Amino acid sequence: MSDVDEVIIRVHHEEWARVVAALTRRFGDLDIAEEAAAEAFATAVERWPADGVPPNPGAWLTTTASRKAIDRVRRENKRDDKHKEARMVYDDSPPEPPGAIDDDRLRLIFTCCHPALAMEARLALTLRMVGGLTVPEIARAFLVSESATGQRITRAKTKIKAAHIPYRVPSAEDLPARVSGVLTVLFLVFNEGYLATGSDTDPVRHDLTAEAIRLTRLIRALLPDDGEVAGLLALMLLIEARRPARVSPGGELVPLAEQDRGAWDATLIAEGHRLVRERLAAAAAGMAPGRYQILAAINAVHTSAREMRDTDWSQILALYDQLVRLDPSPVIALNRAIAVAELDGPEVALAAVDRLEQRLADYHAYHATRADLLRRLGRSQESRAAYDKAIELAGNTAETANLTRRRDQLR
């Protein structure tokens, strides 16, 4: 891969959302924005190797994409209709609340996460339009087929256009009800960056984690008293702080127990801990914590331990018990079982994990967890089979490398 190719890939990660958001704001049409942005990047692939990378790649791409969009409108001979349609999107909408953050990508997120859309459509559309993920990557994140994912995105864009869903930050009255779906999407975007699902991408995509954190900070500025916004930001910061130690120089995922804690980002950890303490004070005052606040507290316990052996597993288990009452999902139960293994032993944890088989049969982390518990119990043959299944289902190359090594170490 040439240096220019690497630049194009990096710029795509960094600028996709900006270009799409700017075009959506100008033309009021997600289809036009996405197609023109894609054409602009295709033009960059053709021209930059010969002409050189422009001084401001984002501005070049936005300008090129805008010209592509105008050309499409002219080709379709519907220029007046498109302009009228854009005016309907903006002029019929109430003005944004005073002091609202002027950020095109934030507007784009609230548009993609509009409650008129089904939750699955909101997630898929935002990951595509804001996160820049491909349809195969989104399909892996949802554990559904690529065709179903593509249909969700298409239907969502069609509904936005037909219903004239406004491209704006919601009013102050609407924000609390709307923010939950946005947080779900942002956490999905962050997770895709924290551990990419695609086998042909970087195992850890800092562009996505940084973008999710940036947008969460913006939402926190809009809703400074919302506990779940603060909780999600703290959770992201505490996870992001461990990123420098997550992948070995050889490209293998490094589990938490084996990470060099000296490489963790102390500044991010301090900020995350401060947010968690603020939410603990609010909980003490009678404000029950939500899902993200509890997850942030769990990660605060992990990042407070200087060594793995210093981890307060009883506190982590108590937090998971609290979380299970809010979110009785099988993934939460699986993570709880890991804490159980540290306190009550792998045999007790394995029994809890095996009860999740029917619901998590296609989830690679289920098989990886089970393989590790079987290894600790000395059941090497069963552990190897579980590792094989986890490797088959895992898409991330760094994670596959780690699972393969652990399997090959079995007697």
- Strand percentage lies at under 5%
Structural class: mainly alpha
Main sheet makeup: none
CATH class wording of the domain at 1-89: Mainly Alpha
Mean of the pLDDT scores?
88
Q: What is the CATH fold-level name of the domain at 1-89?
A: Rna Polymerase Sigma Factor, Chain: A
* Level-2 CATH architecture of the domain at 1-89: Orthogonal Bundle
The helicity comes to over 70%
Rg measurement, Å = 23 Å
Topology, number of strands: 0
Give me the number of helical elements: 20
- What oligomeric arrangement do these chains adopt? single chain
Distance between the termini: 39 Å
Q: Which regions are unreliable across 5 or more consecutive residues at pLDDT < 50?
A: 86-101
The shape is globular
Compressed to H and E, one letter per element, the order equals HHHHHHHHHHHHHHHHHHHH
